[in-house]
């Protein structure tokens, strides 16, 4: 075992090492969500603004940008889940005697972190198949999803991502699933953001209530921002 592997092994074996991995990867995902939500809200600025944004994402660094982001997100999600599982096992083994007390003191959102986390994972898999892989739908069909205004102006093809989102959320049960998943995400964030501050040593008795407020406020903004899109579309926006 060389020095780097030994160092990583020691880090992974310690409880604080794993907590830091959960916190740092959690922070990456929290920042991604803020960016993704802000970008998605461009759907309300109309077809041209949203398609310009989608095109920009796909062409950043000559197409390498989106792959760097995808790999970064995948690594963050994998480490977040692996460290959480390892930490839960370690804690269960070490704290059997305190389990009852810890459970009754914890808030509801912190007790259901595992379930909200698993729902988010299931949602992300569905979401990637829906809008990125575009499996089981026609969103990759140029006859149906070409941005015609862009083609008329430039002569080039680009996908009509705006129409894809409008059509994607024109089905009530898809919208319902998104709303349920966003609600789980909101619950996960309302505990998770505060836990990041705690692990990074940024939460004191004095700042605790402000951090709780930031945590719940951020979760609420993310919920409103994300669910506003499918709800508006189901109510007729863009159709
Ligand atoms: C109403 C809510 C949402 C909308 C309208 C939306 C929209 C989209 C769209 C259109 C894409 C495809 C981008 C492209 O390839 O052109 C996408 C990709 C993605 N979304 Fe969302 N999204 C929403 C919520 C979420 C949430 C809550 C998460 C995470 C929990 C998420 C995670 C992702 C990821 C990881 C990708 C893959 C990026 C890529 O590799 O292309 N999305 N989303």
TrEMBL record:
The chain crosses the membrane at residues 20-44, 64-87, 112-129, 171-197, 218-237. GO terms for cellular component: membrane. The keyword Membrane applies. Keywords: Membrane, Transmembrane, Transmembrane helix. Gene3D superfamilies: Fumarate reductase/succinate dehydrogenase, transmembrane subunit. This is Succinate dehydrogenase cytochrome b subunit. It comes from Luteolibacter yonseiensis.
């Amino acid at each position: 075992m060389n020095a780097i592997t030994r160092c990583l092994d020691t880090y992974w074996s310690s409880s604080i090492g794993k907590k830091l991995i959960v916190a740092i990867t959690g922070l990456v995902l929290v920042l991604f969500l803020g960016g993704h939500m802000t970008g998605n809200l461009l759907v309300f600025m109309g077809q041209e603004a949203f398609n310009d944004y989608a095109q920009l994402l796909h062409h950043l660094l000559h197409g390498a940008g989106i792959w760097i982001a995808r790999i970064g997100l995948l690594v963050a999600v994998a480490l977040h889940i692996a460290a959480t599982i390892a930490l839960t096992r370690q804690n269960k083994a070490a704290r059997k005697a305190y389990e009852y007390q810890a459970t009754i003191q914890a808030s509801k959102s912190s007790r259901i972190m595992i379930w909200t986390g698993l729902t988010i994972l299931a949602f992300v898999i569905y979401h990637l198949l829906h809008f990125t892989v575009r499996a089981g739908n026609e969103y990759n069909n140029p006859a149906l999803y070409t941005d015609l205004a862009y083609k008329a102006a430039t002569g080039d093809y680009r996908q009509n991502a705006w129409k894809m989102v409008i059509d994607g959320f024109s089905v009530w049960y898809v919208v319902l699933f998104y709303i349920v998943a966003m609600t789980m995400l909101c619950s996960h964030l309302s505990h998770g953001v505060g836990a990041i501050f705690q692990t990074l040593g940024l939460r004191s008795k004095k700042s605790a209530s402000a951090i709780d407020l930031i945590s719940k406020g951020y979760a609420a903004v993310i919920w409103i921002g994300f669910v506003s899109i499918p709800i508006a579309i189901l109510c007729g926006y863009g159709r």
